[in-house]
């Protein structure tokens, strides 16, 4: 039962991803990027190459509206908060998990390092673009540490179920952002404007980070996330918590 | 005399309504319907033969709206204040005070450096104010009082224009109790806001219209005419019933205006139809944002967000400044 | 000059001609783009009246008279001051906004590579705060009037948000990059210090406002002490917590 739900979800997600890649923003994606959609992880410098050659530098750059600025601010704030929570969860889980399951050490280290990279990226974006961090920072700090510690204490499966739930929400959130940005790019393209190198780069980075998060999700499923004991309850509670945290962080 | 005149006009209005109601199944005035209307339609380019506009919730020929609005105000001229009291829950006096105070008319003689006032012909002493649809002089007297007492300005002039002679008569009567009765600072003219040919272009500092613009047949034409007569830098200011912001308050207010006001109008002034029209014309008037758009379309710059809500949006003050 | 700022001004000069939105938004802490120049803080007509009126502030104060004289100087009428819905507060706000935006150009830090010695964030914050206070000098004899206007109930939210924008601007220009809880504490404490020093300055009769400078230094010193204490405290809490967990783990307690 649980696995059918999951597979249908991931199918839908993959379908959404492909649709966006293929149709939503033909102008911002150069042909050379097209094959990379089947790779789950792209090289980190991928985003830097994104500004498409088809848009000459003389293309006027779209001036963001107030709503667009507000969207970017709250979305990027949520991203930073999410990555903060992710590194805290992994940091709290790692010592407990690797003590009983030493073979997970490299995987946990790999995932933690990727999350730390994302966190550093979003910290840079926030300070550069003068977006305030969430006012609930200490609350999320404590909550994420507790969540990581608590699920790790429940065992490997529960910890992996936690990863699965969190990464599903985060991945969906990134996917929505990419969708919105590509939609803007399409509308700007119709008016003969470009989003500018900043946002084109951001789309690339968001894509790369989303793919890495979904990769973590796959790792969690490979490591028996679905055999966690109250699987439905656990994942639903964690996902509900994630959605609540996103809702709050978008606002404060 | 006043009463007989207004009663005659009222009967005219009722008669014309009844006549059409009998002829047609829906309440609509076609161009040819009322033969009683002796006044020719105004010579406005928008007045095509088939043009219609709104009279309250009715659709009437454009040529007729002006006449019918005239009839309404003829019939309520003497009870004008009590009508405004009902419509605004009694606070229209405060709104008008606020309206005038915020416009701050008049030039303080001490703050006027003598060099600038003599060098530039644009800077005559005092303001030249045009108060449209201000027949009873409500705004005009307040403007002159504010200029005289607050700004010690004895030169600011107000021209009161109204399409309706009964309202002007009422205003003249009331002006006798003020110090401005026979001074050159106050003037009454009968004029249509859509055609102010007697006012030269770029001659007015401040154009005000309080609780009048919703009765205009062509608001856009009136706005363009306001733009014409204003000096560059001159101000268009409008106080008008508007849209209530809070949905709960709005529900209560709608119930009050449609349920109670026509009834009260019948009891106090013996004139249900005129009050019904006034309520409907308020509901018809564009929202704050739409009206701001109309002001901008006429060429004005609007300050800030473009309007100021009074008492939760029952009324709103709109301003526009003619660019240099 | 930080490289991003340089890039911004370069880009700005290329794109100055691009269409700018009529509605001006200066929302605090919304996404700040480097791809195009920021829109001007005031629409042209308001800007013309306010800048002319600002020249009359030393003589007439932050008053409606200054606004009317400014409107006349700019070729407008007395009545045109209706273009400023908040009246004299718009004049005060003009001073606040223009002086805040002028900070970026007025305060240039020497290139770190050239100078060899690195200028700390604290020193930059001090320099920027002092520069902003010095910008009040031409109108300081009128500033108490302005403070009274800003303290009117309907203008308090706008005044506080402008104060927050100033604190944000100073921390941003000083190169501070923290985006955690300290983002808030830094801005809050700098806002407090700045407003206290600003009030002090209106009563300072010392030559060249030396006492104001000392007052500011003392407040910043206090902040450093408190900040240092809070930092040490949180460090201690974190260290004790970690070592407790490690001790428990070494004893075989499954935590």
From TrEMBL, chain A:
Q: Establish whether keyword Membrane is in the entry.
A: yes
What pathway does the annotation place this protein in?
Cofactor biosynthesis; ubiquinone biosynthesis
Cellular-component GO terms for this entry:
extrinsic component of mitochondrial inner membrane
Q: What positions does the entry give for Fe cation 2 binding?
A: 115, 167, 213, 216
In short, the EC number is: 1.14.99.60
| Residue stretches of biased makeup (Low complexity) | 30-44, 51-60
The protein's required cofactors: Fe cation
Q: Which family does it belong to?
A: Belongs to the COQ7 family.
Q: How is the quaternary structure described? A: Component of a multi-subunit COQ enzyme complex, composed of at least COQ3, COQ4, COQ5, COQ6, COQ7 and COQ9.
What is the protein name given in its UniProt record?
5-demethoxyubiquinone hydroxylase, mitochondrial
Give the organism, scientific name: Dothidotthia symphoricarpi CBS 119687
TrEMBL record, chain B:
Residues bound to S-adenosyl-L-methionine are 136, 162, 192-193
Pathway field: Cofactor biosynthesis; ubiquinone biosynthesis
Q: How does it sit in the membrane?
A: Peripheral membrane protein
Q: Which UniProt keywords apply?
A: Membrane, Methyltransferase, Mitochondrion, Mitochondrion inner membrane, S-adenosyl-L-methionine, Transferase, Ubiquinone biosynthesis
State the InterPro entries in the record. Answer: SAM-dependent_MTases_sf, UbiE/COQ5_MeTrFase, UbiE/COQ5_MeTrFase_CS
The EC code for this enzyme is 2.1.1.201
User: Can you say where in the cell this protein is located?
Assistant: Mitochondrion inner membrane
Q: Does the keyword Methyltransferase apply?
A: yes
Region annotation (Disordered) maps to 1-55, 106-125
State the reactions this protein catalyses. a 2-methoxy-6-(all-trans-polyprenyl)benzene-1,4-diol + S-adenosyl-L-methionine = a 5-methoxy-2-methyl-3-(all-trans-polyprenyl)benzene-1,4-diol + S-adenosyl-L-homocysteine + H(+)
A GO CC annotation given for this chain: extrinsic component of mitochondrial inner membrane
Which GO biological process entries does UniProt record here? methylation
Q: Does the keyword Ribosomal protein apply?
A: no
Known function: Methyltransferase required for the conversion of 2-polyprenyl-6-methoxy-1,4-benzoquinol (DDMQH2) to 2-polyprenyl-3-methyl-6-methoxy-1,4-benzoquinol (DMQH2).
Record text on subunit structure and interactions: Component of a multi-subunit COQ enzyme complex, composed of at least COQ3, COQ4, COQ5, COQ6, COQ7 and COQ9.
Q: Which NCBIfam families does this chain map to?
A: MenG_MenH_UbiE (TIGR01934)
Which family is it part of? Belongs to the class I-like SAM-binding methyltransferase superfamily. MenG/UbiE family.
According to UniProt, the name of this protein is 2-methoxy-6-polyprenyl-1,4-benzoquinol methylase, mitochondrial
Query: What is the scientific name of the source organism?
Result: Dothidotthia symphoricarpi CBS 119687
UniProtKB/TrEMBL annotation, chain C:
Domain (COQ9 C-terminal) ranges: 156-227
- Write out the GO cellular component annotations: mitochondrial inner membrane
Task: Write out the pathway annotation from the protein's UniProt entry.
Answer: Cofactor biosynthesis; ubiquinone biosynthesis
| Highest rank taxon of the organism | Eukaryota
Instruction: Tell me any Pfam family this protein matches.
Output: COQ9
Q: Which InterPro entries does UniProt cross-reference here?
A: COQ9_C, Ubiq_biosynth_COQ9
What processes does the entry annotate via GO biological process terms?
ubiquinone biosynthetic process
Q: Where found? A: Mitochondrion
Keyword annotations for this protein, in alphabetical order, are: Lipid-binding, Mitochondrion, Transit peptide, Ubiquinone, Ubiquinone biosynthesis
Task: Give one GO term, molecular function aspect.
Answer: lipid binding
Note the NCBIfam families from the entry: diverge_rpsU
Q: Which family does it belong to?
A: Belongs to the COQ9 family.
PANTHER family on file: UBIQUINONE BIOSYNTHESIS PROTEIN COQ9, MITOCHONDRIAL
User: What role does this protein play?
Assistant: Membrane-associated protein that warps the membrane surface to access and bind aromatic isoprenes with high specificity, including ubiquinone (CoQ) isoprene intermediates and presents them directly to Coq7, therefore facilitating the Coq7-mediated hydroxylase step. Participates in the biosynthesis of coenzyme Q, also named ubiquinone, an essential lipid-soluble electron transporter for aerobic cellular respiration.
What is the protein name for this chain?
Ubiquinone biosynthesis protein
């Amino acid at each position: 039962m649980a696995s059918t739900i999951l597979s249908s979800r991931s199918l839908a997600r993959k379908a959404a991803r492909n649709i966006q890649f293929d149709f939503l923003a033909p102008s911002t994606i150069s042909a050379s990027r097209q094959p990379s959609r089947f790779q789950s992880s792209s090289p980190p410098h991928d985003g830097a190459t994104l500004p498409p050659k088809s848009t000459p530098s003389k293309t006027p750059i779209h001036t963001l509206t107030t709503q667009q600025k507000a969207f970017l601010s709250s979305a990027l704030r949520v991203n930073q908060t999410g990555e903060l929570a992710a590194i805290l969860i992994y940091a709290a889980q790692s010592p407990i998990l690797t003590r009983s399951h030493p073979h997970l050490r490299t995987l946990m280290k790999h995932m933690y390092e990727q999350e730390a990279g994302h966190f550093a990226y979003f910290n840079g974006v926030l300070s550069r673009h003068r977006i305030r961090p969430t006012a609930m920072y200490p609350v999320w700090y404590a909550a994420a540490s507790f969540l990581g510690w608590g699920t790790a204490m429940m065992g490997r499966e529960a910890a992996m179920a936690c990863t699965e739930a969190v990464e599903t929400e985060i991945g969906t959130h990134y996917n929505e952002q990419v969708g919105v940005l590509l939609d803007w790019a399409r509308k700007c393209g119709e008016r003969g404007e470009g989003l500018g190198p900043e946002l084109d780069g951001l789309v690339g980075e968001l894509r790369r980070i989303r793919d890495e998060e979904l990769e973590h999700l796959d790792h969690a499923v490979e490591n028996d996330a679905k055999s966690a004991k109250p699987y439905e309850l656990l994942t639903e509670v964690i996902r509900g918590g994630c959605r609540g945290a996103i809702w709050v962080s978008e606002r404060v | 005399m006043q009463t007989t005149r207004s009663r005659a006009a009222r009967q005219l209005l009722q008669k014309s309504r009844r006549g059409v109601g009998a002829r047609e199944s829906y309440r609509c005035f076609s161009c040819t319907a009322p033969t009683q209307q002796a006044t020719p339609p105004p010579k406005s380019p928008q007045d095509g033969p088939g043009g219609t506009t709104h009279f309250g919730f009715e659709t009437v020929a454009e040529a007729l709206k002006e006449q019918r609005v005239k009839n309404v105000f003829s019939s309520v001229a003497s009870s004008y204040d009590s009508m405004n009291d009902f419509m605004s829950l009694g606070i229209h006096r405060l709104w008008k005070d606020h309206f005038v105070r915020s416009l701050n008319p008049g030039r303080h003689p001490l703050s006027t450096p003598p060099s600038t006032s003599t060098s530039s012909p644009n800077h005559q002493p005092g303001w030249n104010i045009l108060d449209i649809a201000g027949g009873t002089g409500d705004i005009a007297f307040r403007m002159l009082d504010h200029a005289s007492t607050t700004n010690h300005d004895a030169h600011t002039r107000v021209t009161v224009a109204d399409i309706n002679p009964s309202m002007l008569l009422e205003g003249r009567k009331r002006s006798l109790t003020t110090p401005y009765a026979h001074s050159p600072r106050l003037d009454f003219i009968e004029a249509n806001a859509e055609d102010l040919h007697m006012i030269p272009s770029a001659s007015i500092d401040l154009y005000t219209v309080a609780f009048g613009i919703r009765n205009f047949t062509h608001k856009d034409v009136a706005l363009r005419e306001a733009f014409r007569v204003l000096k560059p830098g001159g101000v268009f200011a409008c106080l008008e019933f508007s849209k209530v912001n809070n949905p709960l308050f709005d529900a209560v207010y709608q119930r009050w205006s449609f349920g109670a006001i026509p009834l009260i109008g019948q009891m106090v002034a013996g004139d249900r139809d005129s009050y019904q029209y006034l309520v409907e014309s308020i509901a018809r008037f564009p929202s704050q944002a739409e009206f701001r758009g109309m002001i901008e379309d006429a060429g004005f710059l609007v300050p800030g967000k473009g309007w100021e809500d009074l008492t939760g949006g029952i009324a709103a003050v709109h301003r526009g400044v003619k660019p240099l | 000059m930080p490289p991003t700022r340089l890039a911004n001004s370069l880009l700005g000069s290329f794109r100055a001609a691009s269409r700018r939105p009529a509605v001006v938004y200066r929302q605090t802490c919304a996404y700040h783009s480097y791809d195009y120049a920021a829109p001007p803080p005031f629409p042209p007509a308001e800007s013309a009246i306010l800048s002319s009126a600002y020249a009359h502030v030393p003589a007439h104060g932050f008053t409606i008279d200054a606004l009317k004289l400014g409107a006349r100087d700019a070729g407008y009428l007395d009545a045109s001051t209706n273009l400023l819905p908040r009246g004299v507060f718009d004049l005060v706000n003009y001073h606040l906004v223009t002086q805040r935006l002028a900070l970026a150009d007025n305060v240039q830090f020497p290139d770190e590579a050239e100078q060899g010695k690195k200028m700390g964030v604290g020193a930059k914050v001090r320099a920027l705060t002092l520069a902003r206070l010095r910008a009040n000098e031409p109108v300081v004899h009128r500033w108490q009037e302005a403070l009274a206007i800003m303290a009117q109930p309907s203008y308090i939210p706008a005044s506080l948000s402008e104060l927050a924008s100033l604190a944000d601007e100073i921390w941003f220009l000083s190169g501070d990059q923290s985006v955690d809880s300290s983002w808030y504490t830094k801005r809050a404490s700098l806002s407090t210090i700045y407003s206290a020093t600003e009030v002090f300055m209106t009563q300072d009769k010392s030559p060249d406002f030396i006492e104001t400078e000392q007052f500011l230094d003392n407040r910043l010193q206090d902040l450093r002490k408190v900040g240092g204490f809070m930092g040490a405290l949180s460090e201690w809490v974190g260290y004790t917590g970690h070592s407790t967990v490690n001790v428990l783990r070494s004893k075989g307690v499954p935590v």
